[in-house]
Amino acid sequence: MSQTAHIVHLTAPTGPADAATPPLLQVENLAVSYGRIRAVDGVNLHVEPGRIVSLVGSNGAGKTTTLMALSGLLPLASGRIRFAGEDITALAPELRVARGIAHVPERRRVFAGMSVRENLVLGAYARGDAVDIASDLERMVALFPRLGERMAQQAGTMSGGEQQMLAIARGLMSRPSLLIMDEPTMGLAPQMIDLILDTVLEIRKQGTTILLVEQNAVEAMRLSDHVYIMRLGRIVHEDSGTNIDPERVKSFYLGADA
Amino acid sequence: MDYLGQLLANGLVLGAIYALAAVAFTLVYGVVRLVNFAFGELFMLGAFLTASLMLPEVRLLGAIVPMPGFSLPVAAAGAIALTAALGVLVDRIAYRPLRNAPRLAPLITSIAVSVVLQSLAQTVWGAEELRFPEFHLATLPPVVLFDSIYLSVMDLVVMATALAAMLGLSAFIARSSLGRAMRASAEDQMAATLVGIPVNRVVAAAFAIGSGFAALAGLLYAQTYGFAHSSMGFLPGLKALTAAVLGGIGSIPGAALGGLILGLVEALGSGYLPNGTAWKDAISFVLLVGLLYLRPQGLLGKPELNSAGRGSLLGGASEFGAGWLRAAFGKLDGGLARAASAGTPAALGLLALALVVGALLPSDYWLRILTLVVIYGMLASGLNVIVGFAGLLDLGFVAFWAVGAYLTSILFVLVLKDQFGVEPATIWWLLYLNLPLAGLLAAGFAVMLGTPTLRLRGDYLAIMTLGFGEIVRVVAINWMDLTNGPMGIRGIPAPNLFGIALGSPRAQFFFALALAVVVVFAIARLVRSYVGRAWVAIREDEEAAEAMGVPTARYKLYAYAASGFVGGFVGVFYAHTQQYISPLNFSLFENILLLMLVVLGGLGTFIGPFVGALIWIVFLQLALDLPFVQAYPETRFALLGIVLIVLMVFRPQGLAASARVALTMPGARPANAKEAA
Question: Which CDD domains match (chain B) (predicted)?
Fold first, then answer.
């Protein structure tokens, strides 16, 4: 385990929760359709700066679809997205990255044929050619020492956990104010899951707001300041991470409560 | 040694040009997985634009236009910039709307773009060759190597330019930020978007660079051979694509290597083989077929490229289009789908309609055209078996058609009439024997061609079958004793039944209709059997089909055989209605035309090929009446190309896509049980 191990105890919500703070991300009445199928319907959510907010729910609940709509990969059927006070509903995906939204996609999707360094450099693409990225590379190595040892290695040859680290680091290279993470622990060994989740806390501590999608609802609740529960394309429940009754979550997952 | 050295030198010059054009194919394929056939035409435009800019005046659209008369380097730079801009425009209009469309759709529009550009060039610059002006370096004495190898200064310039351009591009791709973004987009477009890469702009940049390379290759080619012509891009374009595939498409060093090998092999082949210059085009394609058989991913390519497009030949739809247009297409599609789902009654109704039209239509001229519609509909149905049902993209289908047409023509004319003096009318029955015979021969041929392609997938399969088709055409041109060569075979007798000549257009239309009934019925029976289900399983997901125990190799060969049989069968009738055949009838363009008909009508449908043929051939005739087309006859094909691009952009899944045959087990649904019975 790395230098991030010491923050495991940091589970209580610490984000600034006073109502005066305007939300960093505000989503109103978001709807997304795949052809005739409405995958996300009337989702409202907001993320205050400095917080970790989670979106949990069973398979097919519309979590990934929501995230893809937020970063501009899917067209909206209706709704509005505001980010840092600006309406970004119609903004092209690459411009959203430039505004400060980074999205670490499901299944990592590192550029497998390129080196770790090239992946990281590409992460800073939206910031333009002129920026000095050496300091950012150092920051990433400090966060994930493992990546430092592998700078020249082809990304596709690394283990799943290492690729996840790279995907997160690549996202951070754009110096985002909001980091969106889609199932960062999927398919990883338990030890690696702990490491990744610790890193999530560390990233928040360094000042980046986080919107997280997790299959593992228990871990997500432990980590998050605020949790939204999705079911069949809608948000069915929300509360602060510590207030949510796990039994209630279970019922949402199993579909007993509708 | 002198002779060899000279051949090697020539090969290097040709290879350098092929390599440059191959880079265009490889670069764009690498980023968007599209074989952009239009690069052949951008190659041609590079030559025309350079020549025009170098001359003091040019005849454009029949009028003399003063030109700046630049020197070669300036004119070349101008031509490259203009062609690059055109390439970006083409991407914007014809390809970008199709990024999520079925994979065949952009391939078809790229062919349509070729047709448009070629006929526009012919309209603008005329049908004759434009002499390429001499550059002053060309007047310098040649450089002599080893006392015996003569290289003109321009040859050296060509090689140096090609080398510099390729090294420059490699460095650009490896080092620059845009180059890195290109590689990232090539690997994973979604991830590239998420790190903030404007993927559409990166793709446009790839098109600009690729088009510039094609133009550079074209102008160097024209400079070397001293002329520019509107059709000059076709064969070099195919060779460059071959070179790209040879080297491993997507790899720039591979394109350079492939181009070099191809240039050397062609030069050596035409120098050493008996009658080598005539066969040099076949040599390249034989090399391609042989290499793909041994190493499916090309010399330097990655193996996964060979799995491109799994299950995606037909999937997807347009995300584009005005409301009313979409609604209109939807209605047409719905109507065709209803007709298709009605099964036998609808088929009989259509047949009755065709019979009534055939009986009542007063014009012989239109009857001939409708006969052609039925013939092309049948051929397209044959191609549909392999492309639409089994999902194997076949660009060599014309070869089977040619086998049928040549078999019956050679027997009737060259053997029986010319050798033995037998009057065709006395052996009229031979035609009816030839129909199944040619079908079987072509089917055997198809299996023979199909066997080495079993390891290939997607675009690689398309290129290999294209190679086969070209080999057959080159053989038909050059094997004079067997095929009469480019003169073709004349005097093929019209069909005859019990001594009654079926020479009238009306009789031939009914004859064609009868054959169409046989063809469609046979295909329908086959597709609705377990064989058809296996084909569709392979089309949808080859690995899954294999895992479920479908012997994919065997069923792919069945598909080749069935499609070959139809090709040969129809070819016999085609020869007898046309009464004259030549290798020109069986060009790659015809194959692409058939593919267009199938895609236009709807892949994997029974009615689609005929819908496509009707639209295409009737439009081709109607266009003749437009005053604009009468003033500029060459624009007819440009117009067709534009119509096709519009149809593809708005309706990439084909007009009758919903009529696609639903294959369920007999008994699974009452409606289907009835059809199967």
Answer: TM_PBP1_LivH_like, TM_PBP1_LivM_like
Provide the ipTM: 0.89
What is the model's pTM? 0.88
In order of A167, B310, B476, B486, the CA distances from B399 in angstroms are: 50, 26, 10, 16
Residues of chain B with pLDDT under 70: 1, 303-326, 340-343, 661-677
User: Who's near B469: CB < 8 A, 6+ residues apart?
Assistant: B395, B396, B397, B398, B399, B588, B591
To the nearest whole Å, the CA of A170 is away from the closest chain B CA by: 8
* Identity at B510, one-letter amino acid code: F
Residue B37 and residue B87: Cα distance in Å, rounded?
Answer: 12
pLDDT, tens only, A161-181: 999 999 999 999 999 999 999
CATH code linked to domain A23-100+177-258: 3.40.50.300
What chain B residue is nearest to A109 in terms of C-alpha separation? B191
Q: Which residues of B touch A94 (CB under 8 A)?
A: 193, 196-199
What is the total residue count of chain A? 258
Binary contact (B187, A112; C-beta < 8 A): yes
Provide the token pair at B49: 């634009």
Name the residue ranges covered by the structural domains of chain A: 23-100+177-258, 113-175
Helix or strand holding residue A190 (H, E): helix A190-205
Contacting B with CB below 8 Å, chain A residues are: 71-73, 92-94, 97-98, 102-103, 105, 109-114, 118, 121-123, 125-127, 129, 170-171, 173-174
**CATH number among 2.30.30, 1.10.3470, 2.40.240, 3.90.70, domain B328-676:** 1.10.3470
With contacts defined as CB-CB under 8 Å, which chain B residues touch A102? 194
Q: Do A110 and B191 touch (CB under 8 A)?
A: yes
Q: What is the mean pLDDT of chain A?
A: 87
Q: What gap in Å lies between CA B238 and CA B40, rounded to an integer? A: 7
Confidence of residue A36 (pLDDT cuts 50, 70, 90): confident
Q: Provide, as residue numbers in chain A, all residues whose Cβ is less than 8 Å from the Cβ of B177.
A: 125, 129
B198:A122 CB<8 A: no
Residues B409, B405: Cα–Cα separation, whole Å: 6
Contact: B183, A114; criterion CB under 8 Å: yes
Domain boundaries, chain B: 17-134+151-257, 328-676
Closest CA to B386 of B482, B264, B468: B468
Query: What does B450-515 look like in DSSP terms, one character per residue?
Result: HGGGTT--HHHHHHHHHHHHHHHHHHHHH-HHHH-GGG-B--PPPPEETTEE--SHHHHHHHHHHH
Spacing of C-alpha B51 from chain mean position: 28
Say whether B180 and A118 touch across the interface (CB within 8 A). Answer: yes
CA–CA dist B16, A113 (Å, integer): 28
Strand duo A178-182 + A101-104: pairing:
parallel
